[in-house]
């Protein structure tokens, strides 16, 4: 174990894109970094620059044993994990009917169950510390969805639902949970998996496929600045449960939320007219940790 008192960031999917930017940012701040990827060879560029503060480790998030071993290696090297960032993931583009069930399951296995395995491996150590933070990288597609993103959004919606419960469960242990919802950032993420095109959906999904092709390499978001936003939020007095990064994410989530509230108001009378005739038992929503309950 090193005597270095700097905070330690544990990052999955650190070989490229946002994960690489997070690792570079943390190293630039003087933090310790556990950079993980399925291929350690892809982390050589990081290792050459900061070997004393960097542990490059093989981690395939779909293998729970890999997660346990990587976490144990991090603890052995740096003594603790202060920030766990579940960034590993990929995206599928295709209509729901165009996407085979096997592809749906593979998407869930990496984006949801992969993050879950790493969290479960790290939690005993974080609880013992009585401190730390977990950042689960979702997407604005974890708050809303659109044609062609059914499989991807399903995995991110699941990640966000689990994270929201986890945040309440870990608060008594002094552990923060934050969901990151990026928009379009200038990474290689647009190198997605495209499902075979069905004629019936050619026009429906075609615009999205073309937009991804046209914007690749010209996205507005700077991943290094997203990494900085993560650090600022984690060190603030009131870390948000969800942090949108990118003006496009902020705008999309705001518009979606406003539409949700509008529809909620329009159908409130119908929705509320479902009570049983006799008095119902009172529910102590505050005790359950639910704010703004009826």
How would you explain this protein's 3D organization?
By secondary structure, this protein is of the alpha/beta class. The chain has a single domain, classed as Rossmann fold, CATH 3.40.50.720. The protein contains nine helices and nine strands. It has helices at residues 17-28, 44-49, 64-78, 101-129, 150-170, 202-215, 223-234, 247-266, 268-272, and strands spanning 8-11, 32-37, 54-58, 83-86, 92-93, 132-137, 175-182, 193-194, 242-245. The strands form two sheets. The chain has a seven-stranded parallel sheet with strand order 3-2-1-4-6-7-9, with helices on both faces. Helix 1 (17-28) links the parallel strand 1 and strand 2. Helix 3 runs parallel beside helix 4 (101-129) and helix 4 runs parallel beside helix 5 (150-170). The radius of gyration is 21 Å and the shape is globular.
- Terminal-residue CA separation: 51 Å
For the CA atoms, what is the radius of gyration? 21 Å
Helix content: 40-55%
- What would CATH call the architecture? 3-Layer(aba) Sandwich
Number of DSSP-assigned strands:
9
Q: What is the topology, as strand order, of the major beta sheet?
A: 3-2-1-4-6-7-9
- The assigned structural class equals alpha/beta
Beta strand %:
5-15%
| Count of separate structural domains | 1
CATH superfamily annotation = NAD(P)-binding Rossmann-like Domain
- The average pLDDT is 90
Query: Which spans of ≥5 residues are poorly predicted at pLDDT below 50?
Result: none
The CATH top-level class label: Alpha Beta
Q: Give the CA-based shape.
A: globular
Order of helices and strands: EHEHEHEEHEHEEHHEHH
Total number of helices: 9
Major β-sheet annotation: 7 strands, parallel
What is the CATH third-level topology name?
Rossmann fold
């Amino acid at each position: 174990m090193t005597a270095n008192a700097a905070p330690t960031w544990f990052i999955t999917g650190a070989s490229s894109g946002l994960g690489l930017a997070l690792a570079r940012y943390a190293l630039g701040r003087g933090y310790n970094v556990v950079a993980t990827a399925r291929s350690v060879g892809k982390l050589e560029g990081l290792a050459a620059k900061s070997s004393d503060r960097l542990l490059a480790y093989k981690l395939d998030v779909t293998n729970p044993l890999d997660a346990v071993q990587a976490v144990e290696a991090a603890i052995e090297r740096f003594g603790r994990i202060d920030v766990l960032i579940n960034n590993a993931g990929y995206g599928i583009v295709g209509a729901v009917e165009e996407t085979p069930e096997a592809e749906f399951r593979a998407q869930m296995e990496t984006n949801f169950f992969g993050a879950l395995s790493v969290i479960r491996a790290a939690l005993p150590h974080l609880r013992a510390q009585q401190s730390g933070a977990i950042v689960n990288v979702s997407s604005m597609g974890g708050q809303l969805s659109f044609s062609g993103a059914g499989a991807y959004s399903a995995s991110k919606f699941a990640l966000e639902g689990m994270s929201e419960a986890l945040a309440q469960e870990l608060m008594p242990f002094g552990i923060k949970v934050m969901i990151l919802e990026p928009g379009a950032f200038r990474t290689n993420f647009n190198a997605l998996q495209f499902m075979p095109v069905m004629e019936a959906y050619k026009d429906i999904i075609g615009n999205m496929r073309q937009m991804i092709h046209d914007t690749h390499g010209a996205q507005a978001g700077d991943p290094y600045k997203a990494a900085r936003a993560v650090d600022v939020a984690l060190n603030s007095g009131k870390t948000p449960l969800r942090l949108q990064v990118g003006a496009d994410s902020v705008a999309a989530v705001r518009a979606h939320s406003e539409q949700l509230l509008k529809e909620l108001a329009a159908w409130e009378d119908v929705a509320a007219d479902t009570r049983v005739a006799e008095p119902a038992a009172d529910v102590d929503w505050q005790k359950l940790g639910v704010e703004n309950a009826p």
